[in-house]
Amino acid sequence: MKVEIKKVDSQGRVVLPISWRSGRGKEVVVIEREDRLEIFPRDVDLSKYIDSVEVEVTNFSDYHEMRGELRKK
């Protein structure tokens, strides 16, 4: 693992290391956690997150109910 301190500009931008920019797509996935942001290349396999949270939702077409349950977790 490599750790670097990066500055965030006034518009919230962070420059990614050149090793990350070369040979990858131009999109990243940003996951916001309570205490951190996680950044993954867009081509990463996100299927590992599919069953990572269990929620009690009866109607999946009700976005607000599902969002509320997810926020409880």
Could you explain the architecture of this structure?
- A hairpin with a 4-residue loop joins β1 (28-32) and β2 (37-41).
- The chain is an alpha+beta fold and 73 residues long.
- It starts with 17 loop residues before the first helix and ends with a helix.
- It has a two-stranded antiparallel sheet.
- It has one domain.
- 19% of the residues lie in helices and 14% in strands.
- It has helices at residues 18-21, 63-72, and strands at residues 28-32, 37-41.
Summarize the structure.
The protein has 73 residues and is of the alpha+beta class. The protein has 2 helices and 2 strands.
Compute the average pLDDT.
Answer: 80
Oligomer: single chain
Q: How many distinct folded domains? A: 1
**What profile does the largest beta sheet have?**
2 strands, antiparallel
Number of strand elements: 2
* Coarse structural class: alpha+beta
Number of helices: 2
> Compute the gyration radius: what is it?
16 Å
What sequence of helices (H) and strands (E) makes up the elements? HEEH
The percent of residues in helical segments reads 10-25%
Q: Widest sheet: strand order? A: 1-2
Cα separation of the termini: 28 Å
Strand content: 5-15%
